[in-house]
Design a protein that fits this description.
Layout (H helix, E strand, L loop, with lengths): L1 H26 E6 L2 E5 L3 E10 L5 E12 L6 E2 L10 E7 L4 E9 L4 E11 L6 E2 L3 E6 L6 H30 L1
Parallel strand pairs: 2-10
Antiparallel strand pairs: 1-3, 3-7, 4-5, 4-6, 4-8, 8-9, 8-10
């Protein structure tokens, strides 16, 4: 009798432990749009994150932020968004019951490769962060330099400065005599 009681108590506790995170996760949902992007280096895109309150009461003090990870073969690493996006985290004061909040993250694409972007929401009242599905981001390398415009400036500027110094030196020398 004690063994079956202990076994039932353990099963009930295991179900209860697994049920709490599931109910917390269903309270807030987050999605990212667009689900995938193909763009070129230097382009600007905007990700939109939708935070949905699935509960019957308002939630407050929610923080949402976007993350970016490089998934290019051999270069796998999380990315520091300092150069990519100025909008890192958004604080949402309140989302009404069964309401939504839409946040926007503009991003400038600075390096080629394969990436994934996702939005994470942290609710101060729950201990579980919620993340969206991943948005796949393919960035093609594009060279935007025009050597026909760069070369004349790179060579002509030092020559022009040298000529100006020579003219000044020649005028000073002619005044001294």
């Amino acid at each position: 009798m004690k063994k079956s009681s202990l076994l039932l108590s353990t099963i009930f506790l295991a179900i209860l432990v697994n049920y709490v995170p599931a109910s917390a996760a269903s309270r807030v949902a987050v999605s990212i749009d667009p689900p995938s992007v193909q763009a070129n280096m230097g382009d600007k895109i905007t990700y939109t994150g939708t935070i949905t309150n699935n509960s019957g009461k308002a939630i407050d003090n929610v923080i949402a932020y976007i993350s970016l990870a490089n998934v290019t073969q051999g270069k796998e690493a999380p990315m520091d968004l300092e150069d990519w996006s100025a909008n890192k985290a958004i604080k949402v004061d309140a989302i009404p019951p069964h309401g939504t909040y839409e946040g926007k993250w503009p991003m400038r694409l600075i390096d080629s490769g394969s990436y994934v972007a996702y939005i994470t929401v942290v609710d101060k009242n729950d201990n579980i962060p919620i993340s969206s599905m991943m948005s796949h981001l393919e960035i093609k390398r594009i060279l935007r330099l025009n050597p026909n415009n760069v070369l004349p400036v790179a060579l002509g500027e030092p020559v022009l400065i040298g000529i100006v110094f020579m003219v000044i030196a020649f005028k000073r020398r002619s005044r001294v005599k």
